[in-house]
Amino acid sequence: MSKKIKIEAEFEELAWEELTIEEQQLMMRARKVSESAYAPYSDFHVGAAVRLESGEILQSSNQENVSFPVGVCAERLVLGYAGANFPDLAVKEIAIVARRKGEEIWAGVSPCGLCRQTINEMEMRFNRPISILIQNPDGSVFRFQGIQTLLPFKFDDLNA
């Protein structure tokens, strides 16, 4: 017997002025680093910035490759760098932005499945949710408290 299951998502949509100063700073760093994206194939420039629990901000942009699977998303790149270089510091928040080359307006963006699973792994590693900030084309910002909303069937356990 089949049954329907409903999944609901709760998150915030905030005007720029509603962000904290720290969140605005993180978003600005993601915007700035998106300019250094290496995206000759998609012309889609993505920037991601994370704030560690120490307050330090790390940032990265997407880096494409003619062999498409070899390219790396901005989110995975910055989270991998954080994990490798600051293995004892949790990521508190991540800001994600994207813009098409030559356009002034920010593009709608959401982390891909690989990036969502990478955020999940970082949350599991430190047993704490990461605040996720995503730039919208209209200037507003989505704020998610943890990856669960974006990845409701996350992969957590190899033995389950």
TrEMBL record:
GO BP annotations listed: nucleobase-containing small molecule metabolic process; pyrimidine-containing compound metabolic process
GO CC list: cytosol
Keyword Hydrolase: yes
UniProtKB keywords: Hydrolase, Metal-binding, Zinc
EC number per UniProt: 3.5.4.5
Gene Ontology MF annotations: cytidine deaminase activity; identical protein binding; zinc ion binding
Root EC class: hydrolase
Domain CMP/dCMP-type deaminase: 21-158
UniProt name for this protein: Cytidine deaminase
